[in-house]
Amino acid sequence: MSDYQDYTPETQPANDATETDGNDLAVLKAENAELKDRVLRALADAENTRRRAERDRQDASQYAVTKFARDILGVADNFARAIGACPADARESAGPQVKAVIEGVEATERQLLATLERYGVKPIDTSDGKFDPNFHQAIAEVPAEGKPPGSIVSVVQTGYVIGDRLLRPAMVTVARRDGAPAAGDNAKT
Fold this sequence. Notes:
It contains five helices and six strands, in the order αααααββββββ. By secondary structure, the protein is of the alpha+beta class.
């Protein structure tokens, strides 16, 4: 009887160890889940940062020449004006020296445009005649001349893109609706 009579809950080891272990296990599982979540978020952040840095690097290499290209477009415009200033009939009647100068100017223009294109600078195509405010700047409305209203009648200055970005809009004249006042007219409709 001596062993059993001395039994008190204070002297006997707690039999609740499984209960405490269960709480500790739940706490550890929650902590483990939180740490896994943190690791996954950190990995995702690192991957996003890597992708952003790669995209920034590509943009920097592709668009690094933007300012220079914009400045050089004036030279391309001057070559086009020089070639356009000499009509075909004047070329035919010109002497061999003048023809050689004209051919040299044309060759230089082709070389300049090819160099620009190698660096991603390309002229905006206006051959379809559709006006797109994202790529064209209308500088005047002119009589339609058989073209649908709002379509491109002529290109005053060629526009350019670099990669997929606008470098300079094409300056164009567009067909106005029949009966519409010309730009600058003060007539009331």
